[in-house]
Amino acid sequence: QVQLVESGGGLVQAGGSLRLSCAASGRTFSIYDMGWFRQAPGKERESVALISWSGGSTYYGDSVKDRFTISKDNAKNTVYMQMNSLKPEDTAVYYCAARSVSSGHYNYWGQGTQVTVSS
After folding, report:
1. What's the pLDDT tens digit per position in 47-75?
2. Which of 21, 31, 41, 49 is the most exposed place for a label (fewest CB within 10 A)?
3. 8 Å CB contact between 8 and 23
4. How far apart are CA 88 and CA 17, in angstroms?
């Protein structure tokens, strides 16, 4: 099993910044990649940013490119997402997720952290 603990959400004004953290523990050797997903009220969950467990490959959703940066601290088994130039439409619950090598989908999820951007 892999446990994921998120932190860093909150309330920020438009144009501001926040940094989310996701600490992984347990069978981290089985992780293939990790990512951040978000879900706003009445909307489907969407992938925001993904990073390989080695940290060598990243992916960003079109709506956050050039504003969000995902990174990983290998020593701490922690994934970060720096969010800059935040917009009200970024308001959502953000979830950290991990996909194990043997899985075709993200099979470990954090508890979620609320990000609210006021206009």
Report:
1. 999 999 887 899 999 999 999 999 999 89
2. 41
3. no
4. 12
